[in-house]
Amino acid sequence: MAAKRVSDEALIESYARTSSVWKSAEEFGLCGQSVHERLTKLRIIIPMNIFTPEQDNLLMEYYEAYAEEGRLDELARIMARNKTFVATRARQLGLTNRKRSKLYLGPIASANAKRWHSENEHPRGMLGKTHSPEEKSRMSARSKKRWAEMTLEQLEAHGNVLSQRNHRRWNLMSEEERREFQSHSIRGWKAGWREIGGQRVYFRSRWEANYARYLEWLRLRGQIAKWEHEPETFWFLKILRGTRSYLPDFRVTENSGIQIYHEVKGWMDDRSRVKLQRMAKYHPHIRLTVIESKTYKSIEKTMKPMLPDWEAGK
What confidence score (pLDDT) does residue 186 get? Predict the structure, then answer.
C-alpha cells in the first residue's frame, strides 16, 4: 500500500497539535524518520547543532564573560544546549581565545562547585559525610591493584594522553604565562614539562628531571658528548604477553662515541625487574646502567648546591 501524499500544511498542523514526530507519522501512515526530515527542511524542527541568529547574538554578548569565569556549563544550561555545542559555535564565531590563561581555572572551578553544592543536594546523598577508614583502605587497595595490573601498553597509552594534553596546554601559553606556570607549578609536579639544555622534555618524575640536569652539567664541561631523553623503544618480539617492550630513560653518548642507556630507578618493582631481564636476554649488545637510589642520592649530594633549579622530592 502506497503512503499517503501529505501536504506540508497538514504535516505542520499535526506536529503543532501533537508535539510529536512519531504521533504525526502515525496519523498519516508515514515513517517517523521521513516526517522528521521534512519538518527539519521546513525549519519547523531546528537541529540541536544549528544556532539561530538570536542564539548567536546571545553567545557573542555573553560568551567571553562566562568563559573567563569558568561558567560555560551555566551558559549552556541557559541556552538549553550541550556545552560542547556552545564551545564549538563560539569557536566558529571567532569568540574563543586560545591564549586565555588557564592557570586560575582550578580555583574558579572549585568555587563554582562549592557554590553548586551549597544550593543543591548531593547527587549521591553524601553531603556532609566522609568515607570510613576501612572504606578508604579498600579504595586505596583497589586503586593500587588496578595500576599494578595494567599492561605496559595501557600505561604507555595513559602516559601519551597526559603528554599530549600537557603539550597542547603548553603551546597555547605565552612566554610570560609559561614562566609563571613553571614558577607556581613545577615544585608540585612529579611529571611535567621542563626545559633543560635547550630541550623541552616531558619528564615522568623529579628524579628524571634532576638527572637530566646532571647530564647537561656533564655535557657543558665536555665530559659527555650529548644526552637524549627516551629516544628509543626496545621490543621483545618473541614475548606474546606481559612486558613486551622497554623504554630507557636516557641515551648518553660518550666522547668516544659509545652509547650507554641510563635508567633512573628509585625502587625496583617486579615489572622493572622483568623488563631488565628481558632486555639483557633479547638485546644483549645494548649497554645499560641503572641509577638506583644510592647512586642518585650520591649525585644529589654533590649537585644540589651547584644547580639552583634542582628539585626536591621524587
Answer: 45
